[in-house]
């Protein structure tokens, strides 16, 4: 049955914390309350080429807390920190994953940065020994999704798995989305939080922006810049009722969360703090609280003048006459700015404040500045207080804002149950087959955009083909003055979004743009810009300051920020970066935002670029075909990568009808599962994939027989295609369902392949046309009763599915609009 959002309270039953002031939860909390400073000299990195020498570093972990295979030799350090934090949280919650249904426990983590040290290591080896001999393991560990994949593998978790990367708001956003997974009934428990490491590249980047304090940071008072930190925080979230039944006392409760976009600037916040106010008011509205109910704010408090002033302006607006009476503090003054982990560490400290009735302090305070401030800053040491409700703020690059509302006592949510119907009113495509309407025309003609690579020399690779966007006509829709700010990923995402806006004929007045959001997805992020900046900053002695024009675009959600600014969309925003399934995850989440009334319109935008380094890595791993890709073919030898972008305009049915929009179809349901298997492997039986498809059908309140066509992953890789076909045949047991795959025509466009399937599926719903699978003349034996040629009867439902590296699955069910 369709997921309904439950108002029942969500409890935090376990917290794991690894940070610069302590590598256990209790150790860290005692240090925070005592005002201990975790900022100092760094032992793991050489900062001699930078203008500062201080950071907040996590000490050595007890080896017994990193059991094999999560020891130093097997995983990256970020995964080890996340695993240690998750283990501590599970122990406190008394939750043993092996004793419950693994499909009912999921993972949602926030992460801001690539593991650039590992990328640099791989590139140096490529430069020395060539692509064919370079060890690809560093690049596998460099994936931002690696920590979440490691958590799932360690505990065999098969529930929803999300990787959020909306810069420094990622940890808070990951907690919010985990709350939604539980409220909607898609999970009984979630491991949620964030992790990030000290990376010399990001430190050099902030140095280039002159944003780092030469002394330990002093949020809200001296405000001389940030101090960069590292760490991990993971919470166990579950319905308060379940915790009570297990006899577990809740630490605190997540009562609501809010997201917004400033739509102002790539790196600077709106000085008036308007986006922060919108996020905070959304969190309070979900929680059924008023600003007058708030007893404490765990602030974003980075220590830069612009951020501190913008947050103070937001607090003045929110609390008005109470501005000097609501205590605020910044945990970053002790643990540094931990990027993607910041919101999660702040939430962990806030939850502990609610449990122990002690407010965390801000240290390094310039006391001489305090009399001139109208903020009630908690200085130096923890302060006993009565804390019933608190806020935790995270405000990030790209104007992405997230606020969590936490309470000491359980509180029923004020979120609607999710009855709002969600429709698609437009789409924008940039692909190897063309842009806009040209994509549909080429698809109908059976054309293929897979051809020899033109963008970089490919002679040294076994695969020399790609579905490459090498026609720049799509950028004509972008203001030339703004175009100069964009890298490849930003151009793709912004062009697709503007094409989508035009296709949907969206003419939103200013007030309505506050309820119009952007959910972005990418599999690999801004690889081209990151590597260009990394190579430009590299010297014989280390990294120097990163070019300040390049650095902002190395943040994964930069493209989402560009879309928001370009179209002035100020509603909820976040970024999914968990691999190939991220595109469908973004559409699913956008659907839920509208279902529960958080937005009227959301653009679900996915984009992925093609670079020499990305192509070379997949070629080195043996995942690319030497010739044209052949999805579901008995002789399939691998995939061929593609680049492109796809934007889908989703609206509430009421909003679409009020403005007289043309409705292309309705999102009926979605599902998410994962395998909990080692990275690079997949369950050949397709059990978790099949479970994902069934969950999507259940959410749509449909039977398999209601589906006439499926747009699949269809990579051309034997293991993946075989797993997918087994999953499909276990669900669609009655022969005749029509299968389609676009990768032979556009390449495997990574996170955008699923959304491109959605665009094609909308045509299938309207006309019954389904594209033939190019090159499929000898299907794999697992094809079973699935058809791969011919039309279908219009009017049935369509299903679109994707799978990510790390075995994360997503499925979306579409239908024609019904009365």
Keywords:
25 helices, Peroxisomal Thiolase, Chain A, domain 1, 20% strand, 2 domains, alpha/beta, 819 residues, 11-stranded mixed sheet
Could you describe the 3D structure shown?
The chain has 819 residues and is an alpha/beta fold. It folds into two domains: 10-407, Thiolase/Chalcone synthase (Peroxisomal Thiolase, Chain A, domain 1), CATH 3.40.47; 422-815, Peroxisomal Thiolase, Chain A, domain 1. Helix content is 32%, strand content 20%. The protein contains 25 helices and 30 strands. The chain has an eleven-stranded mixed sheet, sandwiched between helices. Strands 16, 17, 20, 23, 24, 25, 26, 27, 28, 29 and 30 form an eleven-stranded mixed sheet that branches. The longest helix has 17 residues, at 77-93. The chain is globular. The relative contact order is 0.12. The mean pLDDT is 94.
């Amino acid at each position: 049955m369709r997921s309904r959002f439950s108002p029942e309270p969500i409890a935090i039953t376990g917290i794991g914390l690894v940070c610069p002031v302590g590598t256990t939860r209790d150790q860290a909390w005692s240090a925070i309350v005592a005002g201990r400073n975790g900022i100092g000299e760094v032992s793991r990195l050489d900062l001699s080429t930078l203008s500062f020498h201080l950071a907040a570093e996590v000490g050595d972990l007890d080896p017994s807390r990193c059991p094999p295979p999560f020891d130093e030799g097997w995983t990256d350090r970020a995964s080890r920190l996340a695993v240690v934090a998750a283990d501590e949280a599970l122990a406190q919650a008394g939750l043993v994953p092996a004793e419950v249904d693994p499909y009912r426990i999921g993972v949602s983590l926030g992460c801001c940065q690539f593991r650039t040290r590992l990328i640099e290591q791989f590139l140096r080896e490529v430069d020395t020994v060539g692509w064919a001999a370079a060890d690809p393991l560093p690049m596998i560990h460099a994936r931002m999704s690696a920590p979440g994949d490691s958590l799932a593998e360690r505990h065999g978790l098969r529930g929803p798995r999300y990787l959020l990367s909306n810069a420094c708001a990622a940890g808070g956003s990951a907690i919010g989305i985990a709350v939604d997974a539980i409220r909607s009934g898609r999970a009984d428990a979630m491991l949620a939080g964030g992790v990030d490491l000290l990376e010399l590249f990001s430190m050099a980047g902030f140095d280039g922006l002159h944003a780092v304090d030469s002394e330990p940071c002093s949020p809200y008072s001296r405000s001389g810049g940030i101090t960069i930190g590292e760490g991990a925080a993971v919470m166990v979230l579950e319905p308060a009722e379940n915790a009570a039944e297990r006899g577990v006392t809740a630490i605190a409760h997540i009562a609501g969360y809010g997201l917004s976009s400033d739509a102002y600037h790539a790196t600077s916040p709106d000085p008036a703090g308007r986006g922060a106010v919108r996020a905070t008011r959304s969190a309070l509205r979900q929680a059924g609280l008023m600003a007058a109910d708030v007893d404490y704010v765990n602030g974003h408090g980075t220590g830069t003048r612009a951020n501190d002033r913008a947050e103070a302006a937001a607090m003045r607006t929110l609390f008005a006459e109470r501005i000097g009476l609501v205590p605020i503090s910044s945990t970053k003054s002790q643990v540094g700015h931990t990027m993607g982990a910041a919101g999660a560490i702040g939430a962990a400290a806030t939850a502990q404040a609610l449990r122990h009735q002690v407010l965390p302090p801000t240290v390094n305070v310039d006391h001489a500045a305090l009399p001139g401030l109208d903020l009630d800053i908690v200085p130096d040491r923890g302060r006993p207080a009565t804390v019933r409700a608190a806020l935790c703020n995270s405000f990030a690059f790209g104007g992405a804002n997230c606020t969590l509302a936490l309470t000491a006592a359980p509180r029923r949510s004020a979120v609607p149950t999710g009855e709002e119907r969600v429709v698609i009113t437009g789409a924008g495509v940039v692909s190897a087959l063309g842009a806009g309407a040209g994509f549909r025309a080429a698809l109908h003609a059976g054309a293929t955009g897979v051809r020899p690579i033109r963008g970089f020399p490919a002679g040294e690779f076994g695969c020399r083909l790609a579905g490459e966007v090498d026609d720049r006509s799509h950028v004509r829709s972008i203001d030339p003055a703004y175009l100069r700010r964009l890298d490849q990923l930003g151009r793709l995402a912004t062009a697709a979004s503007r094409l989508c806006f035009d296709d949907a004929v969206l003419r939103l007045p200013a007030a309505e743009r506050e309820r119009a959001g952007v959910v972005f997805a990418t599999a690999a992020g801004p690889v081209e810009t990151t590597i260009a900046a990394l190579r430009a900053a590299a010297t014989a002695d280390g990294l120097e300051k990163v070019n300040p024009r390049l650095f902002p675009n190395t943040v994964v959600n930069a493209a989402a920020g560009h879309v928001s600014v370009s179209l002035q969309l100020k509603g909820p925003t976040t970024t999914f970066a968990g691999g190939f399934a991220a595109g469908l995850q973004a559409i699913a989440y956008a659907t839920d935002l509208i279902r529960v009334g958080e937005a009227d319109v959301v653009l679900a935008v996915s984009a992925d670029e093609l670079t020499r380094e990305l192509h070379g890595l997949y070629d080195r791993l043996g995942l690319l075909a030497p010739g044209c890709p052949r999805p579901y073919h008995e002789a399939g030898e691998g995939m061929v990568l593609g680049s492109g972008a796809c934007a889908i305009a989703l609206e509430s049915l009421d909003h679409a009808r009020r403005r007289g929009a043309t409705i292309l179809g309705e999102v009926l349901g979605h599902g998410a599962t994962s395998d909990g298997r080692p990275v690079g492997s997949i369950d050949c039986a397709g059990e978790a994939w099949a479970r994902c498809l069934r969950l999507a059908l259940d959410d749509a309140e449909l039977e398999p027989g209601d589906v006439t066509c499926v747009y699949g992953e269809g990579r051309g890789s034997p293991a993946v295609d075989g797993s997918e076909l087994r999953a499909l045949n276990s669900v669609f047991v009655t022969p005749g369902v029509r299968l389609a795959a676009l990768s032979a025509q556009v390449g495997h466009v990574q996170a955008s392949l699923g959304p491109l399937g959605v665009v094609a599926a909308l045509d299938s719903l309207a006309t019954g046309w389904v594209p033939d699978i190019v090159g499929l003349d000898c299907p794999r034996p697992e094809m079973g009763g699935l058809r791969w040629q011919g039309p279908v009867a219009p009017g049935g439902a369509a299903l679109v599915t994707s799978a990510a590296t790390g075995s994360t699955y997503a499925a979306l069910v579409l239908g024609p609009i019904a009365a």
